[in-house]
Amino acid sequence: MVIRTCVGCRQRHERDTLIRVVATGEPPAPEIDLRKAAPGRGAWLHPDEECVAKAVSRRSLQRALRRPDLVVGEDFAESFRALMEAG
Questions:
Q1: What burial class does residue 84 get, using C-beta atoms within 10 Å of its C-beta: 0-12 exposed, 13-18 middle, 19+ buried?
Q2: Residue 76 confidence class, pLDDT cut points 50, 70, 90
Q3: What's the CA gap between 28 and 16, in Å, rounded?
Q4: 36 vs 1: CA distance, rounded Å
Q5: CB atoms < 10 A from the CB of 8, how many?
Q6: What is the CATH number of domain 3-86?
Q7: What is the pLDDT of residues 20-52, one digit of tens each?
């Protein structure tokens, strides 16, 4: 059992219950890592809109990924919502 911390609500849960996010591209943008195996540093979020909103407003993704230049826009929140609805 591997435990990770959600960057939105700061609660600790098993890795299987969280979604991994990585920074990709130039300029860097957040991308959902469904396989949980993409190279590089990852940040973990609950599949919950509140956690995503907290992470975006607190700039938690930028800190967790160590990318202050990370651009987290509404398209990230939309793709996260679509993932939750499909899920």
A1: middle
A2: confident
A3: 26
A4: 15
A5: 24
A6: 3.30.1230.10
A7: 999 998 889 999 999 999 999 999 999 999 999
What pTM value is reported for the model?
0.90
Of 77, 79, 74, 70, the C-alpha closest to 23 is 70
The residue assigned the tokens 């995503």 is 52
Q: Nearest Cα to 65, choosing from 13, 15, 12, 25?
A: 25
CB crowding 61-79: b at 16 or more within 10 Å, else e: bbebbebeebebeeebbee
Instruction: Please give the sequence-ordered ranges of beta strands (E in DSSP) within 1-87, or none if there are none.
Output: 3-5, 12-14, 19-24, 29-33, 42-45
Best CA proximity match to 72, nearest among 7, 3, 5, 4: 7
Backbone φ and ψ of 51, nearest 5°? -65, -40
CA distance 36 to 14: 13
